[in-house]
């Protein structure tokens, strides 16, 4: 990554075409351009960067505020998540709760805390509905009776798919597992680590006995 960045910087060529940039504001793109200016005399200084309108705007917001894009992504991933086989659930839950870094889950942790109104460490049906309502209000939409019914139906679908242990709540580990970008979560290294955890005798295979133990992880029981 460092070498790739240096290569882009040295030739002063970069593009905002990749999909990751579609949700980035023009102000943010302008700041990136200023920071990547090839000629040092024309490049923005660190102090100027810190005083850039885009930085100032977001630093002035409360630390607990969640951006529309981040909340949209999290709720969207929960909505799209499909219930999978027990082994897949157990593997994903293990990777999401045990093999992710604080940096990788920082934004999701912030979103979870914003949605968790009573601070009990889990999201219930009411809190998820309020999260959807908040997102619609941010978008400038008014919530009609029809919209409310659709929101409730979507939340019920989410709970059915995401609540692995069927306790009526989405716990933090479940939230991270389904909201995290799947290409990031399902890396080769994490998949191997999960397999090695489940393959307790190191045989290179998961036996029926090991399978029975590891699928309990989907119910939050310890291996």
From TrEMBL:
Q: Does the keyword Nuclease apply?
A: no
SMART domains hit by this protein: EFh
**Needed co-factor(s):** Mg(2+)
Q: Which residues form the EF-hand domain?
A: 103-138, 150-185, 186-221
* EC id: 2.7.11.17
Q: Give the Pfam families listed for this entry.
A: EF-hand_5, EF-hand_7, Pkinase
**Keywords attached to this entry:** ATP-binding, Calcium, Kinase, Nucleotide-binding, Serine/threonine-protein kinase, Transferase
Claim: Cell inner membrane is one of the keywords in the record:
no
* GO molecular function terms listed in the Swiss-Prot or TrEMBL record: ATP binding; calcium ion binding; calcium/calmodulin-dependent protein kinase activity
Task: Spell out the family assignment given in the record's similarity comment.
Answer: Belongs to the protein kinase superfamily. Ser/Thr protein kinase family. CDPK subfamily.
| Name of the protein in question | Calcium-dependent protein kinase CDPK3
Task: Identify the species of origin.
Answer: Toxoplasma gondii FOU
Tell me the organism's taxonomic lineage.
Eukaryota, Sar, Alveolata, Apicomplexa, Conoidasida
């Amino acid at each position: 990554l460092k070498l790739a960045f240096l290569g882009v910087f040295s030739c002063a060529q970069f593009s905002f075409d990749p999909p990751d940039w579609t949700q980035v504001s023009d102000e943010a793109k302008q700041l990136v351009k200023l920071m990547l200016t090839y000629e040092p005399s024309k490049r923005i200084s660190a102090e100027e960067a810190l005083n850039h309108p885009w930085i100032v705007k977001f630093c002035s917001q409360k630390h607990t505020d969640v951006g529309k894009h981040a909340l949209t992504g999290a709720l969207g991933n929960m909505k799209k998540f499909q219930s999978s086989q027990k082994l897949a659930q157990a593997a994903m839950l293990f990777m999401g709760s045990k093999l992710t870094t604080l940096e990788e889950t920082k934004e999701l942790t912030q979103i979870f805390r914003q949605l968790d109104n009573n601070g009990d460490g889990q999201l219930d049906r009411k809190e998820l509905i309020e999260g959807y309502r908040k997102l619609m209000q941010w978008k400038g939409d008014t919530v009609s009776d029809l919209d409310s019914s659709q929101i409730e139906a979507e939340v019920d679908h989410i709970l059915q798919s995401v609540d692995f242990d069927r306790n009526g709540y989405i716990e933090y580990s479940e939230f991270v597992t389904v909201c995290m970008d799947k290409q990031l979560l399902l890396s080769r290294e994490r998949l191997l680590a999960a397999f090695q955890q489940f393959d307790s005798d190191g045989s290179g295979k998961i036996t029926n006995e090991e399978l029975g133990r590891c699928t309990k992880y989907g119910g939050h029981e310890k291996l």
